[in-house]
Amino acid sequence: MKIIRLLAFAALLPLPAVAAPIVTTEFDAGAVNPSGFFDFDNIMGNVSTDIANGITPSLVGSINPSSSITNLTNGPAQTSITGNIAESTTADNNTIARYIVDLGDSFEIAMVNTFSAHDGARAAQSYNLYAALSPSNTAPSLAIDPTTVGWSFITDVATASNGDGKWGVNITDDSGSLGTYRYWMIEVRQAPGAGMLRTNYGEWDIIQVPEPGTATLLAVASAAMLVLKRRRRR
Questions:
Q1: C-alpha dihedral (133, 52, 21, 18), degrees to nearest 10
Q2: Could you tell me the pTM of the whole model?
């Protein structure tokens, strides 16, 4: 009887809040840095020290032959707003494509970031983000729902269509972790206002949860850099 009463009491207690991914975006109509490393006021720009850097993604679907899948994870994004298809990863018009990174092992991930640039509708971003630890299908075809073969849906992204400029997207979680996974997938689709055109993605960063000591140093450094940026812009 006591066990039943305890169970009944426990059922009345509020459940702990389930953390949900947070998508933070920022648009900048200014020119890109010639180095290919984007600079934003309120979000993290692209880096070449993330855990996915140098890993060539797998492709399900097709991309513009003038672009390259290796541009997604090579560190820098585009070095100009115009004529940057050779520095981009761009799905074929009017199609869906999946870009998949295998980290080689499972890692706890703090942040997933994507960056794009164009002098028109190809700057806006729109995609679904998935992750998996040990899926039964590591590269599901476009006809297969990834969640039916061991993938977890993380979140979706859909920025506005602001015309010429660059977009940055940071995906985080209020718990500090998006989870522990080996595989990550971006399923790109039609961006708002882009019609049949597809986005010119310049970089995709996957940031590992740092060790506690390193995390503190990074937080202090990031805060200092943000203050300096805002002072320079005044």
A1: 40
A2: 0.83
